[in-house]
Amino acid sequence: MSFLACRVFNEPDVHHQLVQMKHDELSVGDTLIKVDYSSINYKDALAASGRGKIMKAFPLNAGIDLAGTIESSDNSSFQKRQKVLVNGCGIGESYDGGLAQYARVNSDWIIPIPDAYDAKKAMIIGTAGFTAALAIYRMQQNGQSPGSLPKHGPIVVTGASGGVGSMAVNLLSKLGYETIALTSRESMRDYLFDLGATEVTTLDKLELSDKPLAKALYGGAIDNIGGKTLSKIIAHTNLWGNVASIGLAQSPKLDATVFPFILRGVSLLGISSTNCPMALRKKIWRQFGRELPLPNFEKILSKEIPLAEVSPYFDELIDKKHYGRLIVNCQ
Ligand SMILES: NC(=O)c1ccc[n+]([C@@H]2O[C@H](COP(=O)([O-])OP(=O)(O)OC[C@H]3O[C@@H](n4cnc5c(N)ncnc54)[C@H](OP(=O)(O)O)[C@@H]3O)[C@@H](O)[C@H]2O)c1
Known about the structure:
Rossmann fold; Quinone Oxidoreductase, Chain A, domain 1; six-stranded parallel sheet; binds NADP nicotinamide-adenine-dinucleotide phosphate; 9 helices; seven-stranded mixed sheet; alpha/beta
């Protein structure tokens, strides 16, 4: 039986194509999953458009996350038709990913979908929501809290209208944090207030100092863009604040001094969703709807795209033509 997949090739240049393929052409693994939903993350857009070096082998199906049902498994702890998800663990980078009607994975990577949400909602959360939640978890483990004394101040979220940014703004505000949404798009103002931001600032109006240690404005940060903005935010972070570094949408460069770290106790926390240890990954996915609120699914979902129509969205995502989460219906 053949099925549809969004496959990335490297000849003559890196590009994707919608192809029909067979189960025995998929990456090796002990479990076959019928994929109901996947999503388009920044990394998927870079991989499928050839605008970033993401794939470690070719050809490979794109898609760093998926949710669906077990079709067959050599691991007896999984039953046929059980609802499961996978994110990170190298899918869509080193192994065939979720932007296909079927995926074959290693059962060690599989997470049963908790009762609090279904496959569609799991992919509205997706890698973006998982990563925002991982950042919040690490910040809180390191002492961040809405009522920390001395009062830390608001958490600034950069790239706020993107997938990770939207999730971070929404989750932080539901947890009681004052949240400043920093965006490059004035048009996203109402959307970000709707998600719970206490303040919305546009990048062009942001006046941050170039000093290595500047006025303490932020209690912490969730940063999706890197570059000069991240460097300055670190210098403006208050005593013992946590800055979670997630992305590089502006630049991978960081031009900082050690002063905020050694004079204010600021922590720079690295967030890496792909290789998050499995025990912590399971814990974070289980927290949604329990220790962690569920996000506002309807507000954050900007579009549901059929797999057959996915092609234009990769470039459009990088060119900031969308907001929130783009999910892909694979069946
Ligand atoms: N570390 C990890 O494990 C991990 C996991 C997921 C994602 N990421 C990274 O996190 C970042 C966000 O991912 P995503 O999936 O949320 O992507 P996304 O939905 O495309 O969001 C990216 C957002 O960044 C802002 N942005 C884009 N280009 C920019 C530029 N040139 N200058 C300043 N801001 C810019 C835009 O927000 P505004 O319009 O609001 O400005 C955009 O919506 C990416 O760099 C991605 O690679 C890392």
